[in-house]
Records
---
Amino acid sequence: MKHIFKGFFAVILVLALSLGTVPVFAGEGGQIIVLFTNDVHCAIDGYSSLAAYREQLIDEGNSVILVDLGDAIQGEIIGTITDGEAPVTLMNAVGYDYAIPGNHEFDYGMDTFLGLAVNTAEYEYLSANFTDLRLGTTVLPPYAIEDFGGYKVAFLGVCTPEAYTKSTPVYFQDENGNYIYSFCENSLYDTVQTAVDSAIYDGADFVVALCHLGIEGTTEGWKSTDLIANTTGIDVVLDGHSHQTIHGEYYENKDGDTVLLSSTGEKLGNIGKLNISMSGSADTQLIPLETVNGEGDAFGSVQALIDGYNAELAYLFNPIGTSDANLAIYDEEGTRIIRNYETNMGDFVTDAYRAVTGADIAFANGGGIRAEIPAGDVTRKLLMDVNPWSNEMCVIEATGQQILDALEHGASGYPEEFGGFLQVSGLSYEIHSYYDSPVYVDEMGAFVGIDENMRRRVQNVKVGGEDIDPEAIYTVAGSFYMLKNGGDGFTMFADSPIVAYEGLLCDSDMLIEYFLTELDGYISYEQYGFMYGDIRIALFTEQCYTLGDVNEDGAVNSLDAAYVLRYDAELISLDYKQLWAADVNGDGIVNSLDAAWILRFDAELITEF
């Protein structure tokens, strides 16, 4: 098989080329087949079956290309303790031809990723929109062309611009905090279109976009469907990032032509199979991994590597306690909920952070909680897979106002998934999603501020059961990634003083410490049995009150103002609906300022709140 590497920029060729064992051209009855995986997240036990399936297809006379769509080398402890090297080594053994970096390929740092690409990977990393701003060039080849006996198929990489905040922002910056790498977020469609046009100019008959963009929970404008709608010349999009299972759906491109899109889900639950005919038609299938016959030379050699890695980690599989509860990040139907709902797993994780550090409050971004703990034996491996990055932890001092802004940012995407959705301990809050989010972010998704002309979604925030004081100082525990490096766009804490850092356990070790010392190796159903937690986060999708009508008599007048003043003077209490009705200026606090607004409304000096 002939490999052609030509780019539309002056490309930095940083990778070694691997020809693999694929035949030059499909024999009689053979096909052009592209096997694809996405969001494997270190689920290495499935690689031996994938290798067996690839070998089977080649033995049948097919031309086979194997590609990965990102987020392969991070997600479980085997990736963490080897800085991604073990998964890459296994991908070499399986026989991958191409891969693209997902946002989590960068989680070990830029130098580590590029080192893996240069020194370890025997397959080619591609990306048309990952650029070095200092040089004005792509970091990786934008595409590669495979020649199947005269029929040429281009494979073109597209990375998510969400990598800035869904990995660690400082990894893309210099020592002065200036961004030195870009994902062409402001020119994504044009950048990809230029690469597509270049590939076609270089002779490509068929273009396959290898994307890590996603659909559900992805920033508007950066979805794979957005890319399709705003470009031409792409025949198939193979996608990752949002962990969706898409068997094969058609979307119209900029010219109204249909483009096939498919995605396998996650963790090698399925092997994606793209069949390409030389007439230009294509279809995709998802092959459940469990249906693959695990035998043959390829299976044996890859399984031996997997067994070796697992043997090194065997001590992590020894039980250290038990759980009566299923700590969940998915609901009963298999839908991920950790990024848009409170869960008992989120409660457990943040309780651990708070207990071990002694902070007033603990935060965990939902996107950083990656695995469940089923009822039964609990091992170190299970706990480490919950927080697989072994993130450094810290405790900061933050004002109540900064905390309110952080909660608002975390709730900005609800009801859609958002990796920055905040699981909490020591704090409770409400999300009123019938209000549009007042949060505005920069082009990289980082928090900039709040539109104070809009009502906040987050209301009735309490710390330790008491109303949060915007002027007060609280101690907040969380990952360095989120609290100080701006992960998931949490920039509001950038200048907050760090009061604990040196000597703190990493996040996964905090879970182990909490489990063994605070819980005595036992997770009780009474404490953590309810999937949706103990209602630290209350969700309201419909307004169940009238602003200003504090006494609920159907009118807004001076009587309501009197209720507010009496509440402010601590003469009466108000229930939750009355408190929402009383906060007419939307600042999250009920006091005399709200009474003044109600009196102005009663005097017809204003017409609305």
Note: The mean pLDDT is 92.
---
Amino acid sequence: MEQGRRHPVRSHLKLSPQCFTNALELCETDPCLENRKYLTVGNIGRLNRLLERYTKAPELLQQALALADSLHGPPLQERGILVGELGALYRQTNRHKGAREMFASQYNLAKKMGWKGQVCRVIGNIGMANCQLARQIWRDSRGNGEAIEEAKDLTHLAITQLKDRVQLALDIQEEEDAHAHS
């Protein structure tokens, strides 16, 4: 599985599917690896997203989430990554409400776990999803006053979220600088 994860980074996308397929076969044949199956399925889903296979990717990522949730003591960090992948996929395929829901779920988990870096990244993703959703609502409004107001409200919310993201990034950088100098 580690080989499959490294290949997309190195632009060897053709090698990744075979590595992940081999890892999935191992997970299915060795009972000791059953709890790793969600990671493998999630990585296959991520790879499909990267390869723009937008019909396969969502079902694989949803399957990986279901597998992760079925484990005793679900793996929270990996679950957050899977939810983020699904959110990114939804954004790429113009399903902005779905993206916003996935990113909100990821944000809540990161906030609960105290993962400042993840909170920072996710609040930016939520802001961008809201911005894109506002643009979509605006285009589809056809002069409908309520829709225009909703788009304006979402735009203001997105601006606030993106400003929060910048401030949080600055705060994190300041903390890192303080630790480096101490």
Note: The chain is about 80% helix and 0% strand.
---
Amino acid sequence: MVQMSRESVFARCIELSAATQLNKPIEPAGRWGRLSDEELLRIRFTTDDPEGLEGLIQSVPPVDSRPFVEFGYDFRGSKRSMIRCAHCKYPNHLAGFVIRVDDGSRFLCGHRCGAKIYGVDFEALHRDYSQARDRASLLHRVAKLKQALPGFVRYLADLKRDSAFQQYSDTRQALRSGMQRLWGGLRAATERSGGILHIEERVRDFEAEARDEARYEREMEDWQQATLTERKRWRREGAAPRKPQTPIYKTVPRPIGSVGAGTFFSSTNAPRRDLEDIAAQFESLAVDPVSAMSAFEKLHYFGYNARKDARGSFMRLAFGFGDTSNKGMATLLKQVSVLLERIEEQIDRLAELPAFFQPAKLELIANWGTAHHLGGHFRAERRTLIFEHDAGSIHQVGLPAGYSVPSKAGIELLRATMSDKQGLADGMGSLIPDSPGHGDLT
């Protein structure tokens, strides 16, 4: 027994020595860290009325009274009057913490004064609170995502059936097959110059005229200094001074407008195909797809590169509800957000069709296509582009009747549901049983 006690004391000395050498405080046993996920979900981490809390004292209690950070508050940017800091003794801050001690007393501490009161130990106190707050936020957001998922899957099912996807593909194919050279030219313009269209224009080349004039002056100077015999020889050889040519013209590309730099002329997948790929992941979200996969299968199946993914890359992301670690939940929320952006991209692509068939843009495209001699004459009539082929055939493509871009309401609703602006502020309860309006979790 004595031997065990000595070993325990010796181990504690080693721990204290290591902490001293590393200049780190001994980690206190945090109250927040002892709570379960269910308890964290019922706790409120912020307060809108720090000065109205029960048990509030105006001075800092003894430092050995086992404090912990109970609430945070931040009124910066508001017109609220300054809040009194128990350490500074006067109203001087708008952001800070409510600190609770063992006897139930609370005091307010400005966000920069915690370290002044408790030294380096405040870092551990604040970390205990912030880690619990961050985990509660993740738990709230994932729970709300899980609750909203069935409704969102129904929204995606309706979205996939929207007629705009088929109308988009059919109209795009009609343009590509009926006006091949125009399509190729517009695609090149979007890839090379961001959709800016140019026509060749004949303009005076004043720099070339000036160079020719200078050349003539040099030749005349040599001519006047030459002998009669040299002049005769130069005439026979065609080397006599040539009068400057004027005017001199050149051809330059002149921008006449833009068709935009979207994906309408690109070779990426059709919007419906990408949407179906994304929807399939939401439909199977309740099953963790990673758990049964080998490393090779993960590498082959998933192509996650976050926002840096090329538009034409895979849209399959590795995520599921199975990992409830902070990192796992944060990854889930991040990747769902990426997929929501991808769905928005597909809807934005559908919006490129009515943008293409705007009368002014069609007139621009018709003039550009005719000027570049792309196999015939182009003209625009309201929202229809007409191509009169040199061989005599006529091909026309217009905006489909009743075409309408689908709503993004379902995406916006799910994004708002997942937002960390909800949940924590609506949570019920505090860590302390005698707080007004809060539950007893101790």
Note: The CA atoms of residues 209 and 248 lie 6 Å apart.
---
Amino acid sequence: MSQSEITTPIEKKRASPRSWQNRLGRILLLILIFYVGIILLLTLIQRKLIYHPTKAATLNAKDWGFTEGRCLPMIFEVEPGYTLHGWHVLPPSHQALNREEQQQELDSERPVIIYYPGNAGHRGYRADQLKRLSSLNADIFLIDYRGYAENPGSPSEQAYLHDARFIWDALVEEYQIEPARIILLGESLGGGIATALANQLSQEGTAPAGLFLQAPFSSLVAIAGERFPWLPVDWMMADRFPSIERIPEVTCSITIIHGRQDSIIPFAQAQQLFEAAPDHSSDRISKTFIEIPGAGHNDIFMMAETEYLRALEKMFKPIRQKNIPKP
């Protein structure tokens, strides 16, 4: 074979640095597009992730174990076309069969609880707890949120705070319940509503008797940030419920109860909220924090009913003392 016939292997072409940079750039661009897409999607559906309403055509108190006249239907037209339904639960052995008898019951000067539930279910699922709360010789009001049970509309922080204030005004003005008799009880998400209303009323000089928070968060943004640290939740979230910013101006007595094993709203959230609260109310009642060691998020009342009711009775004591007839 002649020298001219000798062949050599063709050298493989090496990718230029610019080619690798282009590939890497395309990969990063795809990742960025995917990330932005997730952000936009979650921003659009965020309220579906926060609120989990259970609808019902109608809720009959008898179907939930109430005797006749003990659980009265409540209806509030909070806006034209928006009528909210709820219950007024009387103490055991009490009943009212019409509006006049209901007012006579409310004129008895008993403590009153306005119950703000969590983000799931409806008032029927809390019937047993309402019965136990009313056994403290107290009147309990639970009005379901927009979009829950029979109620029309869609959930949002703005709507909830508007409705909470409307119902408060109706109970105070139309039903003639003195603010100093009312405890705002907020469960989980309801704690954000109760705290916001207590803040507003405190600044107006018409604070309720107390604020009782069951498994509360410091803010909805903080909860989302812990669950999704890779997302810009502070920018994304429309409904924020910044309780930790609102509670410092609350002037009524404050009690917080939280399960140590809560996997939905971490125990530390409740601790932070408690630290932000004033040390005592305007009438010098110290704030109270109750830890339930074995409880999670949804079983606080079941696991610690005695402690729960005792804490409420402690909040009722000043109300009952004020209403003792003078000799």
Note: The domain at 59-322 is CATH 3.40.50.1820 (Rossmann fold).
